[in-house]
Design a protein that fits this description.
heterodimer, A: mainly alpha, MetI-like fold, 2 domains, 0% strand, disordered N terminus, B: 319 residues, mainly alpha, 14 helices, flat
Chain lengths: 289, 319
Amino acid sequence: MDSHQPQAVGYRRTLADRIANGAGMAVLLVMTLLFLVPFYLLIRNGLASTKDITAPGWTFFPKDIQWHNLADLFSDPEIPMLSSLRNSAVVAVLTTAGTLLVSSLAGYALARINHPHSNKIFYAVLATLMIPGAVTFVPSFVIVSWLGWVSDYRGLIIPSLFSGFTVFLFRQYFLSFPKELEEAARIDGLGYGGTFWRIVVPNSGNFIAAIAVITFIASWNSFLWPLVVAQDESAWTVQVTLSTFVTAQTINIPQLFMAAAVSILPLVLVFVFLQRYLVQGVAQTGLKG
Amino acid sequence: MSQQTTTAPQVRPVGGRTSSARRTRAIHGQRRAFWLFIAPFLIGLAVFVYFPIAWSAFLSFFDAQGTVTPTKFVGLGNYTAMLSDKAFVSSLVTFTAFALLIVPTTFALSLFLAVLVNRVRVARAFFRSVFFLPTACSYVVASLIWKLSIFNGVRFGMANTLLGWIGVEPVSWLASLDPPWYWLVIVTARLWLQAGFYMILFLAALQNINPELYEAAFVDGAKPGWQVFRHITLPLLRPTSISVLLLCLIAAYQAFDEFYNLLGAVEYARPPLVYLYHLALGSQQNFGLGSAGSLILAAIIAVVTVLQGKLLGFGRPSD
């Protein structure tokens, strides 16, 4: 029985498998095409002329590729493309660096430094997770305007640095960090600061990179807070600039699509070169959240 | 130091006292380190999270139009005004409808994609990347593509071009109330953006399932396919499923970007954040009403999160 049945069943399974695999592959290919359509439209419309887009019937790809759309985008005084890309870059880089610094230190304290109030503080951090940050944008704006940080990098960056969720992730990570390494450092006479900077941080590269990639993407793509704070055109991030023209529809469609394509380019590069960390970061945020 | 070495051998209690003094010093050092490490975060949390909420609670009892230092106390007036404001209540309805539409569809699509990608033998990394790539796009970019190209209401929009080929008249997707096609636009945009993110979570969980379990089920006569999926895979995915549902719901609460960019402030589809944005930051600058609305919303979300967590057995301290 043991020698015969598995073989017979195994045979039936491969046949069923083959059909299932074929069907699965077909569905997978269809889904792949559907998921790529928006990227296709971004490129097609970005390189087309308005006439190509509005022509009756569907032009699969513009015959005369309008490369000048890209140059026009940066020379058009109506669109603050260059300044908004610069703002987005400054905000995303500083937000990422600041969040990593503040959250890793706090997470390490909560995970590794004993203190009688440690638990109370941890609950105060957890409590903030129940209320999504976006919901309290009105109160946050009130504070920022009182501080005089409207349309200012400080207003765009500083209020976003204190993420209870990131602290929580760092705490969980440090709880699983090998204690022996830290103990060896203590025996060598390093204090908490020395242990953290010379032993813990250099050995946590993967985790820090994962959180960095996630934070950078979230910051680059964030919209509501920059919309609220960046009221002057000079402070607009690239998302605010795009949105202004989507809702007002005052520039031509090809230019707008070219602007969108340019705006996702940094993230596509991050995606291509750092996907390993990104996947790890997503798994981290999702499974421990 | 020298005192310690001379006194220590003499009497035991003295030695005990010095070591306890040393311990006290160590504890002081430890406490100082704790505060040094955590202070930047705690100060920020106090100033930019707790203090705004407290100030907002204060503002919500005042007539605070165009000012953040109001003087006219109105009691619960802002709260009763918000709760009897038809537009605010209808925004809560919109947001409930949105959650009911987006959470199950995201769950189903991301699980479906994960199963497909997990079983494919060739180019798995390619397929995973394709579904994950939209995560790099912002809601603004997706709204732009959806509004101006795919679901553009004019004849040259992509969906209308496809309909034209089978002889159907163009549909004005975002302005159509009967049937409410705008939901199709809103839901598909978010599905495209976030399904890949949740797919990664399911994929990680699927790859953690011990293959021996499938072999055991097979030996026990379970038919590969739906039966195995329903009775083996799905129960094993339970912790991930709960995370996905919760994360997806929390994300739905914060819906703003795509509604704002696709629909502007149309009354029929305006979730609470869009309404509050116009109330507090539009021409009215009504921070009193805006604050009251924010706090009502925050309270609803906190209650729903706790209830849902309890219901699904999630959020118990497990560390």
